[in-house]
Design a protein that fits this description.
The protein is built from 15 helices and no strands. With about 325 residues, it is mostly helical. The chain folds into two domains: about 90 residues, no CATH class; about 220 residues, Orthogonal Bundle (MetI-like fold), CATH 1.10.3720. Helix 7 packs across helix 9. The model has no long low-confidence stretch (mean pLDDT about 85).
Amino acid sequence: MLSYILRRVLYAVPIIIGVNVITALLFFYVNTPENMARKILGEKNVTPSAIENWKQDHGYNLPPFLNVKEKGLSVVTQTIFFQKAVPLLWFDFGRSDRNNIDIGSEIKTRMWPSLAISLPMFTAGVFIDLFFAMLLAYYRGTRFDISAVVFCVMMMSVSTLFYIIGGQYFLGKLLKLFPISGFDTGVHSAKFLILPVVVGVISGAGVGIRFYRTVFLEEVSKDYVRTARAKGLSEGKVLFKHALKNAMIPVLTNVVVSIPFLFYGSLIMETFFSIPGLGNFTIDAIQSQDFAIVRSMVYLGSILYIIGLILTDISYTLVDPRVIFE
């Protein structure tokens, strides 16, 4: 197991470097430092000297990848790529282009509000989706199952914005059960988190229930389930004891790969509910053209995705003894 994990981590290294290089190409060639300066300083009445001063102050005055004016290692080190992109490999995110804040400190601070909303939303969503999916699998082919599937498709067809705005209007404005938006620290944050968690669970229920229902229906049609029924086991015991256990690999694939992204937050949810998390941080950076923050969040997202894939593979051994890592 340890050797397998080590191999997977080593396989991830070239992927991470590739993401870093491609991101640098997009930011330093497609979107040149001159364009960055114009967008941050303002498109109108920006003088060439102001652009050069901004580039000098933020370290964008160097060549992108190779500095032919230098000698030795300085040919590589005295470049924008080495100064801005390479430090991301050891999680040195640097400072933002617009207001010079420390990006690493902001990520550490904003990670907790993102977890405060995404963790309960994720946990409640998984249990609710699994419960209703198993219920539909138990009553498969009945009017209840068909009606529920149609309702799930209807829920999937509605934009997340509808649930957010509808939840804010009915539960926040009309019924005044929860604050429409905002955030607080400590126990006082609970009243601000209930509404986005409820909206998040409801908006994702259609997709989750349909996916897990398909997984369970595939299991109940297999030979071992028919054998269990032939031995006289009840339908509930067959479904909840045997089928559930054997359906855990696709369930874990969907669940575990999502866990690292709990730190990343929800871009839309945090923006509409004014949650000061990483999702809101990313949206603000895109709107303000702060490319240093956007680069950092793209890199962080790739790291989290790779961690999710490794955790998924490891979790397979917990539910399926047939999975052997050599």
